[in-house]
Amino acid sequence: NIVIYTLPFLFVLTTVVFFHELGHFLVARINKVDVESFSVGFGKEIFGFFDKKGTRWKFCWIPLGGYVKFVDDSDPTSKEQALNGSKNGFHTKSLFAKSMIVSAGPIANFVLAVFIFAGLYTLNGKTSVLPIVEAVEQDSPAMDGGILINDRIVEIQ
């Protein structure tokens, strides 16, 4: 049973984490922030690759989160280092740009949810129950009123 529930859970979580981090990543790139690494998962790397801008894309063993690491973001006190470092670092950007980068992850999750529900409604449609009588009990008010099996209810007065 643990495999039946764990694997789908990890698949869904990994998908949500990927899109969340992709939101941060894309808005960072739009704002010309250099990205050192994009990781889905934590711990030791399973596999990865470098893109043409030098970002390391990697998938790690513990699939319970992820992160996007900017070139000047070594630790919470890295702002001072950033001011002496890259001009394309996260800490050198305006407050508006940093706010957009930080908020892009949750916004990406919201957009993902919209697309998932739109896809579900497109493929499955809206479930509805037709107002057709399936059974009439003996000596019931419905039977006394003349309602028969397969009658369609069109109006209630």
Write up what this structure looks like.
- By secondary structure, this protein is of the alpha+beta class.
- Helices cover 43% and strands 20% of the residues.
- A two-stranded antiparallel ribbon has the order 1-2.
- A hairpin with a 5-residue loop joins β1 and β2.
- α1 packs across α3.
Question: Could you list some keywords that capture this structure?
Answer:
single chain; about 160 residues; alpha+beta; about 20% strand
Q: How are the elements arranged and paired?
A:
Blueprint: H1 2-30, E1 35-50, E2 56-70, H2 79-83, H3 95-124, H4 141-144
Antiparallel strand pairs: 1-2
Helix pairs in contact: 1-3
Short synopsis of the structure:
With 157 residues, the protein is an alpha+beta fold.
Classification by helices and strands: alpha+beta
Structural Rg: 27 Å
User: Uncertain runs with pLDDT below 50, 5 residues or more?
Assistant: none
Q: H/E series, N to C?
A: HEEHHH
Terminal-residue CA separation: 51 Å
Mean pLDDT: 89
Q: Which band does the percent of strand residues land in?
A: 15-25%
